[in-house]
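Duplicate of #3305? Posting structure anyway:
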């Protein structure tokens, strides 16, 4: 989840910079190579999602990033293989729910996000998987909701009134504006 804002800030054409920053920031708390590869994929997908990438384009970018990141941290390319299966419609979530395995979590998040027709349907799909659904749903929300306005998110999520969050004019809106501004500067 910590990698989503890196992708929101760094445009899709800054892959190497985004990968290095993601590895450096994620490595402080999750040094396992699989966690680093997963974080790089999520950062790349967050960046591509803001560019309105189609589901197939998002999955292709994810698989490519998984291969590059695995090579960078010298680990297996299992996540790239899983994402290729997601893209081909051959990956299915485990019947007993999503485990904390970072590769399984990323595959599940992208499976939900690329099959969903709306933010709401993506989040419902993520929660219905069982297992580590809070992480999967947070990633789906970040990938699908990152390009929506606060009003659009509220309109899609009728349960938002049950969640205690700061008012939109507060820190959340200020953080979103800062991320957007930073991305605009990075794009130049």
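Output from current build:
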């Amino acid at each position: 989840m910590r990698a989503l804002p890196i992708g929101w800030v760094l445009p899709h054409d800054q892959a190497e910079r985004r990968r290095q920053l993601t590895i450096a920031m994620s490595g402080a708390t999750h040094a396992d190579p699989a966690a680093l590869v997963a974080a790089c994929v999520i950062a790349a997908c967050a960046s591509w999602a803001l560019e309105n990438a189609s589901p197939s384009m998002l999955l292709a970018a994810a698989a490519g990033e998984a291969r590059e990141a695995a090579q960078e941290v010298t680990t297996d390319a299992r996540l790239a293989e899983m994402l290729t299966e997601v893209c081909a419609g051959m990956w299915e979530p485990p019947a007993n729910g999503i485990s904390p395995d970072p590769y399984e979590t990323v595959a599940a998040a992208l499976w939900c996000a690329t099959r969903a027709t709306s933010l709401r349907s993506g989040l419902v799909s993520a929660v219905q998987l069982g297992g580590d659904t809070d992480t999967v749903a947070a990633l789906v929300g970040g990938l699908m909701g990152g390009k929506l306005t606060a009003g659009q998110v509220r309109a899609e999520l009728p349960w938002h009134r049950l969640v205690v969050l700061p008012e939109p004019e507060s820190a959340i809106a200020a953080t979103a504006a800062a991320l957007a501004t930073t991305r605009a500067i990075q794009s130049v």
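Confirmed duplicate; merging threads. The mean pLDDT is 92. The radius of gyration is 16 Å.
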